[in-house]
Design brief:
Blueprint (H helix, E strand, L loop, with lengths): L2 H16 L6 H16 L1 H8 L5 H12 L5 H12 L7 H17 L6 H13 L2 H8 L5 H12 L5 H12 L6 H15 L2 E8 L5 H15 L2 E8 L6 E6 L2 E6 H12 L1
């Protein structure tokens, strides 16, 4: 990700935060629709993301095209995205998609953990090869894959999680469904001012163990910690913790493998 895109994303996030009282599930879905529209129209995307165009002209273009068609919060977010400089024109599509995920996470009830639900969707996908194939197939129409998602999640996941997963399968943008779900989880966690840690252990961890681990990770990353927990008996014992690109591997299986390598 280029520095211009990082700065643009910060501006988009700030605008979304300023709209807090007006942001709801509908706003998130509108931002997804705008991302898909710009992704499918080279001409529109070029006009909105043109770094050489006058910012006020781009704002005027956005207003003419979308006033009255999307909510004020979605329009304000798109207007901000349009006047930013992006490292690549296509980055504005990713920026609007991220804004949609953040809008949904921002407006979700405190009692709902969208991150946990996304993790469970990922588990369901990874445990069913046919389902994963159906969702990642380039031959299947987007609407057909969205239909699979709606049937899979009906009555099992919140409207918020369903909306995010629908977007991920409708417009994968070169990502696998597993990668997309992990990315969405990280965005949701970041929106909640937390980091996402995937903890793999040989057996289920107790609440006291998780609390100690949370204390260590909070001190290390300076943020609250949201956990995904995975059971993998092949680790034998110990833990493997992944936070973003950081991997802390203290599993017995890895230690034994290291010993074997040293002996060889």
């Amino acid at each position: 990700m280029g520095s211009a895109t990082r700065e643009a994303l910060t501006a988009v996030r700030d605008t979304l935060a300023q709209q807090a009282g007006a942001v709801d599930l509908t706003v998130g879905e509108e931002l997804f629709s705008l991302a898909r529209l710009l992704g499918s129209s080279t001409q529109l995307r070029g006009a909105v993301a043109d770094p050489t165009a006058d910012a006020s002209a781009k704002e005027a273009l956005v207003d003419r095209a979308f006033t009255g068609k999307v909510s004020g919060a979605a329009l304000a977010t798109l207007r901000t995205a349009a006047v930013q400089r992006w490292s690549e024109p296509g980055d504005i599509v990713a920026g609007l998609e991220e804004a949609g995920v953040r809008a949904i996470a921002q407006s979700a009830p405190a009692s709902l953990s969208v991150s946990d639900e996304l993790f469970e969707v990922g588990r369901a996908v990874s445990s069913d090869a046919q389902l994963e194939l159906a969702l990642r197939s380039k031959l299947a129409a987007a609407d057909a894959k969205v239909g699979v998602v709606e049937r899979l999640l009906r009555g099992k996941a919140s409207d918020q999680t369903t909306a995010i997963v629908r977007q991920l399968v409708h417009d994968p943008r070169g990502r696998s469904i597993r990668e997309s779900l992990r990315w969405a989880q990280q965005v949701v966690a970041d929106q909640k001012q937390a980091v996402l840690a995937t903890v793999t252990s040989a057996q289920r961890l107790g609440s006291a163990q998780l609390d100690r681990l949370r204390t260590v990770l909070t001190a290390r990353y300076g943020k609250a910690v949201s956990f995904n927990t995975v059971i993998d008996p092949t680790l034998i014992g110990g833990l493997r913790v992944r936070v973003g690109d950081d991997v802390i591997d203290a599993s017995v299986a890895t230690r034994l493998a290291d010993v074997r390598l040293q002996l060889i």
